[in-house]
Amino acid sequence: MTEAPDAFLLSIFQKSGISLGSVAEAWERSEHLYPLLGWLTASFPAPSAFDICAEWLRRCAERIDGGAPVAALFARARDEGPRQAHVVAGALGDVRNQSILDGKPAVAAFADGASDLCEVWAAVTTNEADAETEAWARAKSASAAMVTALLAQRGQDAQAKAAARVELTGLLRLARATVASR
Questions:
Q1: At 144, is the secondary structure helix, strand, or coil?
Q2: Which distant-in-sequence residues (6+ apart) come within 8 Å of 33 by Cβ?
């Protein structure tokens, strides 16, 4: 990805027939989670981008039974320590796998989404980014996982995807506002 996050974000909307004049307008008006989350991950290693993701996951965890430890684990990816983000990404994968075995699909999907975000952070902060950790692709995967988590928690089917996506986008907006106000 050679295109700046701002330009790429606006081009995603433009290709979908949505004309937005600025990133600020995209954040204000968008009901689409992936492009905004992609913009955040493409903005790594900016600490504020990580903080917004951590705050968003914390807010999402309030809607997923058993999700709080996942959000707390993600937040530890910025702690000091050698390859801490890689350790956390691995631990999130372990949580996902154990949750599958324990029959907790919402937590498994939530951990999967958090792991996608953490893997991008780990790759960017250690200068190990590659095609597998491409920020926009991982944000798309994380967005899908988070929608799945919310639907699984509520016992809803695919018909509720659009509403879940809008709700998660609203939480992302709140997280961004919260971090900006600190």
A1: helix
A2: 143, 146, 147, 165, 168, 169, 172
Give the per-residue pLDDT at 23: 83
Q: Are 109 and 66 in contact (CB under 8 A)?
A: no
C-alpha neighbours within 13 Å on the C-beta side of residue 114? 37
Q: Cα separation of 67 and 57, whole Å?
A: 9
- Tens digit of each residue's pLDDT (9 = 90 or more) over 15-40: 877 878 888 888 888 888 989 999 99
The pLDDT, as a whole number, for residue 3 is 64
Q: What is the DSSP annotation of 114-129?
A: HHHHHHHHHHHHTT--
Of 81, 64, 40, which Cα lies nearest the Cα of 180?
Answer: 40
- Find, among 167, 112, 177, the residue nearest to 138 by Cα: 112
d(CA 182, CA 178): 7
Question: What span, in angstroms and rounded, lies between the C-alpha atoms of 25 and 19?
Answer: 10
pTM: predicted TM-score of the whole model, two decimal places: 0.92
Per-residue pLDDT reduced to its tens digit, 84-104: 999 999 999 999 999 999 999
